[in-house]
Amino acid sequence: MQQLIGELMRTFDLAKSPLRELNEELHRQKDGSNEAQWEVLNPRGGHAIAVGLDAPIKVDVLGSVGYYCAGMNKKATVTVHGSAGPGVAENMMSGKVVIKGDASQYAGATGHGGLLVIEGNASSRCGISMKGIDIVVKGNIGHMSAFMAQSGHLVVLGDAGDALGDSIYEAKLFVRGKVKSLGADCIEKEMRPEHHEALSKLLEGAGIKDAKTSEFRRYGSARKLYNFNIDNADAY
Amino acid sequence: MSPKIPLTTPRPSATFDDYTLSEIRRASATGIYDIRGGGAKRRVPHFDDLLFLGASMSRYPLEGYREKCTTTVTLGTRFAKKPIELKIPITIAGMSFGALSANAKEALGRGASIAGTSTTTGDGGMTPEERGQSKTLIYQYLPSRYGMNPDDLRKADAIEIVVGQGAKPGGGGMLLGQKISDRVAEMRNLPKGIDQRSACRHPDWTGPDDLEIKILELREITNWEKPIYVKVGGTRPYYDVALAVKAGADVIVLDGMQGGTAATQEVFIEHVGLPTLACIRPAVQSLQDLGMHRKVQLIVSGGIRNGADVAKALALGADAVSIGIAALAALGDNDPALEAEYEKLGTRAGCYDDWHEGRDPAGITTQDPELSKRLDPVRAGRRLANYLKVMTLEVQTIARAAGHNNIHNLEPEDLCALTIEAAAMARVPLAGTSWIPGVTGAGGF
Fold first, then answer.
1. Mean pLDDT over residues A20-38, rounded?
2. How far is residue A166's CA from residue A147's CA, in Å, rounded to a whole number?
3. Where do the domains of chain A lie?
4. Which of these, A5, A208, B95, B319, is most buried using a 10 Å CB contact count?
5. For residue B182, what pLDDT is reported?
6. With 50 as the cut, is the pLDDT of residue A3 above it?
7. Closest Cα to residue A99, out of A85, A79, A115?
8. What pLDDT sits at residue A6?
């Protein structure tokens, strides 16, 4: 690990030092830390990189990461200059995570808050069980995305795969492209002014300027499966 | 006039018994399966089918009340920087705020802390009442991730990744709308009054290879301090334990079919999973084959009621046990003093299991503010502490009588079985013989 004395940027090379040291260093950072910018070299698909952060720092990972990068993130901004393996930003509470490449399955799973931006495509189960997180995917998303999604927003500029929003609760889904199929209890809903406004803010937050909110369709819960009814059993 | 023909005595069917017929009528009337709380109620081979041999000429006993008999246990020695030290090997199983009232959760914490043991969160997150009153608190990491957040994760003393539970291995949970108060709804990030489904498998990993990476992530987030438990329902214990060890568990919690749930289908509770007795030896064998017995600790749960059950589980190779239904009974659940109120609900004290409906007259399995007030968490906590202490004394009594100065020295050789089934499952000899079905040939003394 090398420290650039007198500068805010710190560089950590995972080819030279272990993951444990990286996460320990990042966990030491608190609000107001003067070590607010970090660069992580040679991630080489490693798992659990920059997990459990709890300070408003910026971490740039120069390469692709494995499972659970930025898991349970709070306050920090983590940018992966490559692609991410399964479960990126899982259970994120706040802050921002940006994936410059593609993301594997379960991106943003169970996230409670913050913004996850995937500049490429996301695989299956994107936003599964999401609980307040906002997710913006510039490309396509795979099947079973937003399964049992509770709250928050999932914005997709490309297409969505099969069974979008299956068993969805109160999350709001916006898709610009085609939706292969909707899951149980997920329906298309009207885009009212407040939805255009919310979508506009999400696109702005993700740095997207070339998309109009009028190009999107909104999907959400029909709320027919909220209380069990035997006559709905064939929906499952 | 023809002679009177004698009538035969009315003969109920053993197959279509009263309960079965009542269930057919209930299903026909409602069109929905029966949901209830608790564990399997059917008779299955259990600890009652085992006996301790006690000391005699070949072994000598220790003096009761005089000679020391250690009960402490340390959990999480494999990887965690801060293993859990408990005074007694009886822990409180995971039960959610939502399924239980806040007062009940507080009472469990109080009772466990007085007795020197741990309590466990459940589906729905950690409440301040529970954390505040629990000296040692295990934080469950469940498929639903309701209320999961890194701050509570760091406040916990250990993390229990729930893969399954004995009452419904392979099944998720259901908290019906009537128990979703404002507070429960907020903690779970869902609208009030809707049925809350808890997923049956985790949203971001499948299988032991993924679990290994998930455990790495949780350890990294918590700086490798906290023991990681993996809880499985009793299904294929030999292989499940081996895979949990492979995935990096510090502690394995193994829950048999008598273990309780807040709510699931009756058909699931009674027809899926293994009896607790059938789980222990395959699990211990698995640990022994891997050279990990006592290095990865084994907690057994499902139908533990008294010190004899605890002693038998330990003798078969467990490091500790966990109680749920028994702990609720100690708080006051199903108390005959409330018989009149149970009758109004169409049941009897001792049989009440519609915990999901939230109308518990004991104020335990409810979110109704008026019913919840009936449970005094201080007094209920004291009752639980008393019960835990009695069980511990009972284990010591048996251990001393078997000649052990540490309850963890109890061993299978201290036991015999009353039935062939129990002998086969526990892998101890049928009483009065040296026959262990499936292990030794018949004969001998």
1. 90
2. 5
3. 42-227
4. B95
5. 83
6. no
7. A79
8. 45
- Output the average pLDDT for chain A: 94
Which pLDDT tens digit goes with each residue over B423-438? 999 999 999 999 999 8
Interval B234-271: pLDDT, tens: 999 999 999 999 999 999 999 999 999 999 999 999 99
**Interface with B, mutate which of A112, A228, A236 (most B CBs under 10 A):** A228
Indicate the residue of A68, A150, A226 with minimum beta-carbon distance to B213.
A68
Q: What is the mean pLDDT of residues B35-40?
A: 94
Is residue B278 in some structural domain?
yes
A19 CB neighbours in chain B (<8 A) are 220
CB contact under 8 A, B149 and A167: no
- Tell me the nearest-neighbour CA distance from A122 into chain B, angstroms: 14
pLDDT at position A214, please?
97
Q: Which residues of B touch A170 (CB under 8 A)?
A: 190-191
Interface contacts A/B by beta carbons within 8 Å: 102
Listed residue (B232, B233, B163) closest to B201, CA to CA: B163
> Residue B48 — very low, low, confident or very high, per pLDDT cuts 50/70/90?
very high
Residue A4 has pLDDT above 70, yes or no: no
- Taking CB atoms and an 8 Å cutoff, what residues of chain A touch B197? 148, 167
Domain hosting B400: range is: 36-409
Query: In this structure, is residue B23 part of a structural domain?
Result: no
A92: phi then psi, degrees, rounded to nearest 5: -60, 140
CA distance B380 to B104: 8
Enumerate the residues of chain A whose CB falls inside 8 A of the CB of residue B174: 228
Measured CB to CB, residues of chain A less than 8 Å from chain B are 19-20, 23-24, 27, 47-48, 51-52, 54, 66-68, 71-72, 74, 86-87, 90-91, 93, 106, 109-110, 112, 125, 128-129, 131-132, 147-148, 150-151, 167, 169-170, 226-228, 230-231
Indicate the length of chain A as a whole number. Answer: 236
Q: What is the pLDDT of residues A176-229, one digit of tens each?
A: 999 999 999 999 999 999 999 999 999 999 999 999 999 999 999 999 888 777
Residue B101 inside a domain? The answer is: yes
Number of domains in chain B: 1
In 3-state terms, what secondary structure has residue A15? Answer: coil
Predicted confidence at residue A235, as pLDDT, reads 64
Q: What is the CATH number of domain A42-227?
A: 2.160.20.60
DSSP 8-state symbol, B43: -
Count other C-beta atoms under 10 Å from residue A81's C-beta.
Answer: 17
Q: In the numeric block, which tokens belong to residue B166?
A: 């004995």
Could you give the CA distance from residue B333 to residue B361 in angstroms, rounded to a whole number?
8
Question: Look-up: residue for tokens 């109890």?
Answer: B410
Q: Which residue of B has its CA nearest to A69?
A: B217
Nearest chain B residue to A85 by CA: give it: B204
Residue in the block written with tokens 């004899």: B308
The structure tokens 């890194």 sit at B150
Residue B371 lies in a domain: yes
ipTM computed for the complex: 0.94
In this structure, what CATH number is given to the domain that contains residue B174?
A: 3.20.20.70
